[in-house]
Amino acid sequence: MKKLLILLIILLCGCDKDIYEQITAKEAYKMITDKETIILDVREDNEYKKGHLKNSINIPFDELEERFIKEVTDNKNKIIIVYCQSGNRSMIAAEILSSLGFNNIYTFGSIDDWNYEIIK
Fold first, then answer.
1. How far apart are CA 59 and CA 34, in angstroms?
2. What gap in Å lies between CA 99 and CA 88, rounded to an integer?
3. Which DSSP letter does residue 77 get?
4. Tell me: the pLDDT tens digits for 58-94?
5. Of 84, 92, 94, 96, which residue is the catalytic one?
6. For the chain, what are the domain ranges?
7. Phi then psi for 95, rounded to 5 degrees?
8. 35-50 per-position pLDDT tens digit
9. Helix H or strand E encompassing 4
10. What is the Cα–Cα distance from 31 to 101, expressed in whole angstroms?
11. Which of 2, 90, 108, 115 is the most buried (most CB within 10 A)?
12. pTM score
């Protein structure tokens, strides 16, 4: 049921406007030097433990709606950079965050595109 809701969000939100900005890993790297930027890894816990970006927060995308505001921030203007393993979950997560009212959402897609330090 939850996956159906997520797909519905994509269909309803994805047609009207860009709800997040697709950026390169290089652009993301420049943005995360600001300590105020939230780096959100939406992979499963076991994937996160294999390697993740420094200072990233791990919330699997299917738990995002119930956990993000409560555990991370309710500031809708915070810059949020989202990534996952292949880029698919990060797009869905960006749409979920947009539906929650956040408006500075960026994704570089896949951790495989990250050519910088990874924490293991």
1. 21
2. 17
3. T
4. 999 999 999 999 999 999 999 999 999 999 999 999 9
5. 84
6. 2-113
7. -70, -35
8. 889 999 999 999 999 9
9. helix 2-14
10. 21
11. 90
12. 0.85
